[in-house]
Recover the amino acids of this structure.
């Protein structure tokens, strides 16, 4: 009987194995189910350059209309021709069991995209798999990869994925192509018009006609601009240095410091052969400020004095009174260039004196009380711990009886530090500085879910 | 031997002997001979030996000096004096015998010649003392006195009760949860206090005597009248029952702070919930401890001082120099203020 039971169990297991094997085989990726462009034998694959006419927008997920595809293709053609780097957009509903990064790289490599010996180019892959919607930008070639830093990748992705997340695929992709173009041309994805191209040598010039008060943030009245211009011009004439006041509501993805330096450098400011000058930039959105000083002014506008000048304008800037901030900066700049010292505001002196006064009173009180205490040598004895026989002291034993438990709660959320940099406040991309596709070609890239 | 009087005479020349604190021996200043003082208890003088005081009342006693025959009038508590006529060192044995005999004595270790150095040390640590407060000319009434002290011993035993808790903090999402386990704690306590000194002299200020502590009680010797020669001595005029309350207060004040500090080990916090500690019968020893007393006259006021004759510690109420006090307060203020302003200016450049 037992033998019969065992035989039935074995037969049942064998049935299950044979019945399930075909189903398991269906789920595993196989060459036969990979897209058409995927080589049958990856090991024997050789790079074959894609035709210039090959489509640069391959919408297998069907998220774009024909008109949209045409518009994106036209923009890609324009940007690609200008910057000698291929740009490809690919959408699909599955990655066929591969990681997004690898799938994007394989699409780029196996279709022969890329310009030049290193196949320079960008491939934006958008995966519309309902279980795993996300994207990956695969970057190929040493020059594009050197520009597509983690910081730039995050800035670009912040914008792209805010579009994709809201279903505006065309707007996101179209804008992304433009940002890649700006990155290739100027080194920053959102660099302003006046930012020079990195593909041509930059020659610094003097623009004597350029306004010295540039109110791009639109916070000054015409009279205020005139007043500040006159004051800046007077200081400029007095000390022989260029003096610029600039307001802006956009740093174009640059840090405030980089933006301020770039504005002075690329807009033709600075006097003389060494382009001497200084600039205050007021950021209207963050109500903060930054300052540039040319190397020749470092004896008077050194790091410490720069810090003090920015401290002096911080209060009115934070209050939103940017005119007062600019006016105070010009006044203090005048004194600093004259004496080498930043004047202190009365309130600073008052705060310092109050601080020193409080500490001094405390110190004086401690010193006096210590001296007075030393005068009191006659004291009645109130305790007898000095007469305790230490080695015969016994405090222990007894009992510790648990009675009850109470709980109290305090709201204290965990503040999680974000790693890396993301300019636009997005979710932060996963970034890879170097990885290989199935063909073994090296890429870098970034991506997110949406 | 005249009853009630003991004179330490040099066996070699018959001149008076005195106790020398530096050598710890009886010395004869006349012939220079010195004699060891036995560390064993001296036999009590025989009852009825010698002569009684010629006149005796409750407050005054009158004796005749055996050396010069002069009449010496003392108060009822003085146990050792120097004859004002011949300088003879006299010990009134009846005030240090029988029930008045001390259980021990700490001999003087500091010679009165050390007073200027001790005073200098005292001066050094009192920055508000008037500059010329101490000078040789205004130090008056210097006397080395064996002061009667009671040394109390007591044991406390029983149980102390506490309410205690132990805290654990765990995170639950965005909340920090403090879980507090409460306990009833019972501790067995046993502690001994030994040799708490309380002076038995009604003439000396209690606080002044308290301030002379600590005395090294391990240095107590069996009583011997030889230690008294050359010094004044007093017998107690407040018995051990009369001043015991002061010792008990000191012990009571210390007991709970000591128990509280030890009972809460291992707990996040404890609060006392009472105790049933009881003190064993308190016991007392009668000893003589060495004290120099002197006074300083300054601007018409007399300030009383005392110096521990064993350790050299000087205590006493002292006046404060208003000028020095003013300078101290505002000088410190000005110095700190200037230093901070300079530092800020330096750091901000």
């Amino acid at each position: 009987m037992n033998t019969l039971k065992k035989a039935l169990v074995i037969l049942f297991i064998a049935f299950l194995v044979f019945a399930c094997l075909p189903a398991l085989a269906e789920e595993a990726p196989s060459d036969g189910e990979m897209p058409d462009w995927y080589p049958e034998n990856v090991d024997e694959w050789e790079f074959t350059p894609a035709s210039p006419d090959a489509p640069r927008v391959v919408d297998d997920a069907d998220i774009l209309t024909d008109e949209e595809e045409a518009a994106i293709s036209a923009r890609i053609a324009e940007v690609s021709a200008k910057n000698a780097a291929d740009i490809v957009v690919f959408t699909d509903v599955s990655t066929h069991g591969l990681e997004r990064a690898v799938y994007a790289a394989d699409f780029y490599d196996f279709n022969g995209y890329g310009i030049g010996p290193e196949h320079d180019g960008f491939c934006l892959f958008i995966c519309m798999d309902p279980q795993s919607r996300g994207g990956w930008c695969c970057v190929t070639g040493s020059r594009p990869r050197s520009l597509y830093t983690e910081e730039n990748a995050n800035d670009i992705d912040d914008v792209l994925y805010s579009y994709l997340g809201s279903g505006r695929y065309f707007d996101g992709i179209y804008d992304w192509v433009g940002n890649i173009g700006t990155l290739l041309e100027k080194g920053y994805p959102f660099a302003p018009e006046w930012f020079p191209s990195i593909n041509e040598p930059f020659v610094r010039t003097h623009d004597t006609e350029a306004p010295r008060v540039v109110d791009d943030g639109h916070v000054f009245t015409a009279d205020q601009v005139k007043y500040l211009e006159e004051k800046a011009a007077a200081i400029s004439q007095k000390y022989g240095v260029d003096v610029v006041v600039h307001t802006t509501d956009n740093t174009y993805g640059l840090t405030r410091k980089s933006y301020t330096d770039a504005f002075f450098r690329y807009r033709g400011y600075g006097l003389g052969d060494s382009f001497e000058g200084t600039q205050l930039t007021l950021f209207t959105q963050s109500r903060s400020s930054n300052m540039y000083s040319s190397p020749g002014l470092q004896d008077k506008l050194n790091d410490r004095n720069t810090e003090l000048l920015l401290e002096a304008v911080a209060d009115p800037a934070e209050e939103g009174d940017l005119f007062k901030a600019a006016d105070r900066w010009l006044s203090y700049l005048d004194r600093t260039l004259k004496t080498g010292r930043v004047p202190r505001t009365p309130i600073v002196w008052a705060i310092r004196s109050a601080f020193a006064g409080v500490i001094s009173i405390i110190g004086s009180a401690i010193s006096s009380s210590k001296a007075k205490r030393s005068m009191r040598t006659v004291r009645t004895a109130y305790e007898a711990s000095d007469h305790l026989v230490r080695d015969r002291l016994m405090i222990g034993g007894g009992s510790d009886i648990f009675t009850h438990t109470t709980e109290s709660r305090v709201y204290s959320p965990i503040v999680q530090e974000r790693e890396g940099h993301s300019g636009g406040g997005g979710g932060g991309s996963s970034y890879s500085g170097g990885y290989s596709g199935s063909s073994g070609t090296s890429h870098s890239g970034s991506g997110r879910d949406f | 031997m005249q009853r009630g009087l003991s004179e330490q005479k040099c066996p070699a020349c018959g001149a008076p002997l005195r106790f020398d604190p530096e050598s710890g021996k009886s010395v004869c200043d006349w012939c220079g001979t010195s004699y060891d003082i036995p560390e064993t208890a001296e036999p009590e003088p025989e009852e009825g030996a010698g002569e009684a005081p010629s006149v005796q009342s409750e407050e005054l006693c009158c004796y005749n000096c055996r050396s010069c025959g002069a009449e010496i009038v003392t108060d009822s508590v003085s146990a050792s004096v120097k004859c004002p006529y011949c300088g003879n060192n006299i010990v009134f044995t009846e005030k240090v015998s029988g029930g008045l005999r001390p259980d021990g004595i700490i001999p003087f270790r500091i010679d009165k010649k050390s007073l200027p150095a001790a005073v200098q040390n005292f001066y050094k640590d009192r920055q508000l003392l008037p500059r010329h407060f101490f000078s040789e000319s205004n130090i008056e009434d210097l006397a080395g006195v064996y002061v009667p002290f009671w040394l109390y011993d007591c044991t406390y035993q029983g149980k102390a009760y506490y309410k205690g808790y132990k805290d654990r903090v765990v995170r639950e999402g965005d909340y920090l949860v403090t879980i507090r386990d409460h306990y009833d704690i019972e501790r067995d306590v046993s502690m001994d206090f030994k040799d708490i000194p309380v002076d038995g002299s009604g003439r000396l200020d209690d606080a002044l005597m308290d301030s002379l502590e600590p005395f090294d009680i391990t240095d107590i010797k069996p009583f011997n009248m030889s230690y008294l020669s050359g010094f004044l001595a007093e017998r107690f005029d407040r018995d051990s029952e009369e001043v015991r309350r002061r010792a008990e207060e000191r012990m009571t004040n210390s007991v709970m702070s000591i128990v509280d500090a030890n009972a809460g080990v291992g707990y996040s916090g404890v609060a006392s919930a009472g105790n049933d500690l009881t003190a064993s019968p308190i016991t007392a020893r009668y000893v003589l401890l060495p004290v120099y007393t002197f006074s300083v006259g300054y601007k018409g006021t007399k300030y009383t001082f005392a110096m521990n004759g064993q350790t050299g510690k000087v205590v006493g109420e002292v006046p404060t120099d208003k000028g020095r006090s003013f300078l101290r307060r505002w000088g410190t203020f000005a110095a700190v203020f200037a230093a901070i302003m300079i530092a800020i200016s330096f750091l901000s450049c």
In short: Residues 216 and 342 of chain A are 28 Å apart (CA to CA). The mean pLDDT of chain A is 86. The domain at 42-196 of chain A is CATH 3.10.310.50 (Diaminopimelate Epimerase; Chain A, domain 1).
